[in-house]
Amino acid sequence: MNLTIFSGPPSSGKTSVILKAIAFFQKRGIKVGVVKFDCLHTDDDTLYEKAGVPVKKGLSGALCPDHFFASNIEDVVKWGNQENLDLLITESAGLCNRCSPYIVGIKGVCVIDNLSGINTPKKIGPMLKAADLVVVTKGDIVSQAEREVFSSRVSTVNPKAMVMHVNGLTGQGAYELSTLLYDENQQVDSVQGMKLRFPMPSAMCSYCLGETRIGESYQLGNVKKMDFGEDEG
Amino acid sequence: MKNMTIAELLERYPFVEDYFQQNRLQVTGFEHLTFEAYLQHFSAEEIEDKAIDIERFLPELETYIEKMLEFLGVQDDNTVQSLTIIPGTDKNGNPEKFENLTVLPSQIISIVGPTGSGKSRLLADIEWAAQGDTPTGRSILINDKMPDPKWRYSANNKLVAQLSQNMNFVMDLRVGEFLEMHAQSRMVQNPEQMSARILEAANHLAGEKFLVDTPVTSLSGGQSRALMIADTAILSTSPIVLIDEIENAGIDRRRALELLVSEDKIVLMATHDPLLALMADRRIVIQNGGIHAVLTTTEEEKSLLLELDKIDGIIQSARRKLREGSLLTKQEIFK
């Protein structure tokens, strides 16, 4: 079984892009399954079901979705192998744009959209910088100039990645993407012992533990203060 | 590169500044260090705080410099002298009905066919420089040769630029700032001069003039279209331009096509407007996912275009009169 990890900001078009690519796999007789990670709610699983794709969803609830991902990916891979999938795709929304669920040795794809603005590549952390492949969506509704500036900035923060445009509505570029997601010779039986490409923050403060009161005396652990500078008072 | 200080790097490869900026690396005050030594100065806390991956930076900067040098270097031999489409099959696997189709710079080809007939697929084949490895089985040749893989994989070298009806400006900048930003990302020597040239060309196309400090988001539909076309014609490095319908309002479409052609672009134009479609010398007819025919615009059609232009002129003048608040009279309109 192949494994590909998709990640990207909410509403960037991950599900549309994946569904368009899956349509081409189905034509080739390659069995694809999807596990969708989200925080509080997702309906995307019904979209996959409608397309005849085996799907599971994982809601992280009170936990950070990336932590939740890391604690569950081993079971997800087990499920994929039980289902006899040829390709397992995990899809997860990066919420604060800091971390990434990518694993060393497993293909990582970041989906971001042109509408998010040309300063976005600078704002996204390892989710964009550590991806092998960056898919840029919604290029059909912004000017050619913005498309060009956007992809050149993506390439500046992640020079090693391949950058491609996919239209989640018409599917333009989705076939091409599909050829990059599946490799007959890859075989992932388990991800046990593999490593995340980038460590998650070790933050743990009183608010992580359920504190609701505001005020210095309630703050314990990893607390960070803003610097207002002396002049600004 | 490894032994160069940051100051030396910046002097030799000025574009590296953009790399530092986009990656949020504050190098001011560290210019005397090598990049490697500079990376060492981050504390473990800072590394976690900024979510940076020290180990990746060194090889990445090297790749970035290589890519940029390639981008700057290849611009000269980036010229596409011809684009050839070699037939594949339609959705049912039937061979497409045309001989190899070769298009040269400054030529306009129109594309007609119902929605969903396969226009996007054709465009994707060109964009991806297909080599019989897409669902249509088509192949694309550039300059009569198999295309360089850079057209597929590099972020800064894309074969096709697109102009469509749905496109908008999303960033909130003034026209001049917008153009200069685009020029900078294309590594243009003199962004200001370039920006002025594009503005002039855009105003030549637009019905109503706009200024260098007009915010792009407050441009009218016609003005936006004019700016996008002028910018794509002059500044985009993509040799092929696909136009997906241009509305016949607030913009001189004939001049727009002339501008693209004068910049040596290969123009593909999906349209069902006879005034545009007949301006092309050839048109591709798409049916059922395949190219059904490649027609050459006939002499009769060319003379018909003149007639249609007159009819269009009548409609346009009626529209103008309405806008002025006049009453329309048969005599004046059909004079």
Q: What features would you describe in this structure?
A:
The complex is a heterodimer of chains A (233) and B (335). With 233 residues, chain A is α/β, with parallel strands linked by helices. Chain A is built from seven helices and seven strands. In chain A, helix 1 (14-27) crosses helix 7. Chain A starts with a strand and ends in a 52-residue tail after the last helix. The model of chain A has no long low-confidence stretch (mean pLDDT 90). The termini of chain B are far apart. Chain B has a six-stranded mixed β-sheet with strand order 5-6-7-3-8-9, with helices on both faces. Chain B has three domains: 6-77; 83-297, Rossmann fold (3-Layer(aba) Sandwich), CATH 3.40.50; 307-335. The mean pLDDT of chain B is 89. Chain B is an alpha/beta fold. Chain B is 44% helix and 13% strand. Chain B has helices at residues 6-12, 16-22, 35-40, 44-50, 54-77, 119-127, 150-153, 175-185, 191-205, 221-235, 253-262, 274-277, 299-324, 330-333; strands at residues 83-86, 101-103, 108-112, 139-142, 160-164, 240-244, 266-270, 282-287, 290-296. At the A-B interface, helix 6, strand 7 and helix 7 of A face helix 2, helix 5, helix 6, strand 5 and helix 8 of B.
Q: Overall pLDDT of chain B, averaged?
A: 89
Query: How do the SSEs of chain B run, as a string of H and E?
Result: HHHHHEEEHEHEHHHEHEHEEHH
* Strand line-up of the largest beta sheet of chain A: 3-2-4-1-5-6-7
Query: Which geometry of chain A do the CA atoms define?
Result: globular
What is the CATH class designation of the largest domain in chain B? Alpha Beta
Number of strands of chain B: 9
**Major β-sheet strand ordering of chain B:** 5-6-7-3-8-9
The number of strands of chain A is 7
CATH architecture of chain A: 3-Layer(aba) Sandwich
Biggest sheet features of chain A: 7 strands, parallel
What string gives the helices and strands of chain A in order? EHEHEHEEHHEHEH
Report the CATH topology name of chain A: Rossmann fold
What is the fourth-level CATH superfamily of the largest domain in chain B?
P-loop containing nucleotide triphosphate hydrolases
The number of domains of chain B = 3
- How many domains of chain A? The number is 1
Q: How much helicity do the residues of chain B have? A: 40-55%
